[in-house]
């Protein structure tokens, strides 16, 4: 059997890998290799950046009508191909089909936002700031944008970036995760079909060498990155030192605070959905429940009851609620936290490790695990596990709980479950996180607001999509104009003052 090698997309056409390096792409449900992916070297990255640079002046000068026509056509194509894209996501990532379709739908939100770019790019003017002087503030494209994305949302995260980048008049080189590149490549090919001119959106597959070349390439002007915290830190540091603007979103450890007055059935449903959905491989997954006072015992019981009932299986089986993890190594690492938590003093309420799915014995499965009486010193609390392992930390009162949450090095999302409006209001103001849910466990903002965390969950000033993305993907320019009257003639060496 011949294995397909997934190629790059440069200047509007497929480009075979020439570096001689490839990586394996696997179906996580079976463990079988399904394809190889070319890993770009510096010369291949240079070719993609050159294509983006060559396309940049013409695209930046193209009318808003021309840009939005392509984006509206793209929206229609994505709708028409959403099942196909969801199938590609499930085949290489493993998440269940409904979740994959949800990912495409959330990505489409940003394409729809980008369709309205004409409204978002309107400048500001001030008339008659001085005698016969007007001021206009306009925003112009940055140039060539590098977009580097993680494995866990191979469609949604690229769609957070490139539609707004091209809508703002930039050209893009996208570097998707080498673990599940096919859905991302399909998105890029469809954008060409929708009418994006050759070179406006390019894709290079690759790993660290490709990323590092993008971070230092003199013709890359801005870098959007989403991935783990150590890599986000490296990206931010390296690209900033090379003089680029950077937004680098990192990992997370999201807390869900449950107060004793909360509806505990609703809270348990929310905790289970947010902890085990997509097998915990979401940057907005709830990985810690902080149960206050009397909420703890009944809440743990309710979560355990639900976690035990989850159906784990291949993502393309409609009966599966949770699919496999991305790789065997990652599955083993995730599973290792459960016995370690027991050794470190936690109570293992549900142990999902060691699960084997009949007919899929080679798949990278693990069941849902629930740890109770976890404390901040334990590995399960300290690390981003990125799998279906939920920790419960018990706190005596609200103050102890919020202090714990705010001591976390991460600050992506946080949620509070309560019926007390006053407590919810306090939490909303006091919690140190970029995205907050009140009785909402995964508060991923809608497209017209922006997504981003605090602390080690984001390096840089700008969040992604929403108004922040318009600012990130454009540069401001202020034009001061005077149409002189012959009466104004004369030299004046004073600093311009208005009057
Ligand atoms: P990752 O950091 O391993 O990889 C992200 C990207 O960086 C990939 O394209 C990869 O090829 C590249 N990369 C990996 N190692 C590199 C290195 N040493 N130098 C340069 N480039 C490198 O992340 P992942 O495992 O693909 O994704 C999961 C992580 O992403 C989790 O930590 C998750 O929380 C995070 N994430 C964050 C958000 C967010 O919005 N904050 C969203 C999704 C995922």
TrEMBL record:
Give every Aldehyde dehydrogenase domain span: 19-479
E.C. number(s) listed in UniProt:
1.2.1.27
Q: Which SUPFAM superfamilies match?
A: ALDH-like
Q: What class of enzyme is it?
A: oxidoreductase
User: By its UniProt entry, which InterPro entries does this protein fall under?
Assistant: Ald_DH/histidinol_DH, Ald_DH_C, Ald_DH_CS_CYS, Ald_DH_N, Aldehyde_DH_dom, MeMal-semiAld_DH
Carries keyword NAD? yes
Is NAD one of the keywords UniProt gives this record?
Answer: yes
Q: Which GO terms describe its molecular function?
A: methylmalonate-semialdehyde dehydrogenase (acylating, NAD) activity
Which key words tag this protein in UniProt? NAD, Oxidoreductase
One biological-process term from Gene Ontology?
Answer: L-valine catabolic process
- Give a Pfam family name: Aldedh
Q: Which domain of life is it from?
A: Bacteria
What Gene3D superfamilies is this protein classified in? Aldehyde Dehydrogenase, Chain A, domain 1, Aldehyde Dehydrogenase, Chain A, domain 2
Recorded hits in PANTHER family, A to Z, give: MALONATE-SEMIALDEHYDE DEHYDROGENASE
Kindly provide the name given to this protein in its UniProt entry.
methylmalonate-semialdehyde dehydrogenase (CoA acylating)
Source organism phylogeny: Bacteria, Bacillati, Actinomycetota, Actinomycetes, Streptosporangiales
């Amino acid at each position: 059997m011949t294995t397909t090698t997934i190629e790059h997309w440069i200047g509007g056409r497929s480009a075979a890998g020439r570096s001689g390096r490839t990586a394996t792409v696997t179906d996580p449900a079976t463990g079988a290799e399904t394809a190889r992916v070319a890993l770009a070297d510096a010369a291949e990255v240079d070719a993609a950046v050159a294509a983006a640079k060559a396309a940049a002046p013409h695209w930046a000068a193209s009318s808003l009508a021309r840009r939005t026509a392509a984006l509206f056509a793209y929206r229609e194509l994505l709708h028409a191909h959403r099942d196909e894209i969801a199938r590609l996501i499930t085949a290489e990532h493993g998440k269940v089909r409904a979740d994959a379709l949800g990912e495409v739908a959330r990505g489409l939100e940003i394409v729809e936002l980008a369709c309205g770019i004409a409204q978002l790019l309107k400048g500001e003017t001030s008339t008659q700031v001085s005698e016969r002087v007007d001021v206009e503030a306009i925003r112009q494209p940055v140039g060539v944008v590098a977009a580097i994305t993680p494995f866990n949302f191979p469609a949604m995260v690229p769609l957070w970036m490139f539609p707004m980048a091209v809508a703002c008049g930039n050209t893009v080189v996208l570097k998707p995760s080498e673990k599940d590149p096919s859905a991302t490549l399909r998105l890029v090919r469809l954008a060409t079909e929708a009418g994006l001119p050759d070179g406006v959106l390019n894709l290079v597959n690759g790993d660290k060498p490709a990323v590092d070349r993008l971070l230092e390439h003199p013709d890359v002007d801005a870098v959007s990155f989403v991935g783990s915290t150590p890599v986000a830190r490296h990206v931010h540091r390296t690209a900033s030192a090379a003089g680029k603007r950077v937004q680098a979103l990192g990992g997370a450890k999201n807390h869900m605070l449950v107060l004793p007055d909360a509806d505990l059935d609703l809270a348990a449903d929310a905790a289970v959905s947010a902890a085990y959905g997509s097998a915990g491989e979401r940057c907005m997954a709830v990985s810690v429940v902080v149960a206050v006072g009397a909420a703890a015992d009944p809440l743990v019981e309710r979560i355990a009851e639900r976690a035990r009932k989850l159906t784990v299986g291949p993502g393309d089986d409609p009966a599966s609620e949770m699919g496999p993890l991305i790789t065997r190594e990652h599955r083993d690492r995730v599973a290792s936290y459960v016995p370690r938590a027991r050794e470190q003093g936690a109570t293992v309420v549900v142990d999902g490790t060691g699960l084997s799915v009949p007919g899929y014995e080679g798949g990278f499965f693990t069941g849902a695990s629930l740890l109770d009486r976890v404390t901040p010193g334990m590995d399960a609390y300290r690390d981003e596990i990125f799998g279906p392992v939920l920790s419960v930390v018990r706190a005596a009162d609200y103050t102890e709980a919020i202090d714990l949450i705010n001591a976390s090095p991460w600050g992506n999302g946080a949620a509070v479950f309560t019926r007390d409006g006053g407590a919810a209001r306090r939490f909303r103001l006091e919690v140190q996180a970029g995205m907050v849910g009140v009785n909402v466990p995964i508060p991923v903002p809608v497209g017209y607001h922006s997504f981003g965390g605090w602390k080690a969950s984001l390096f840089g000033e700008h969040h992604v999509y929403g108004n922040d993305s318009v600012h990130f993907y454009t540069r401001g320019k202020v034009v001061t104009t005077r149409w002189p009257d012959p009466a104004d003639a004369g030299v004046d060496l004073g600093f311009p003052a208005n009057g």
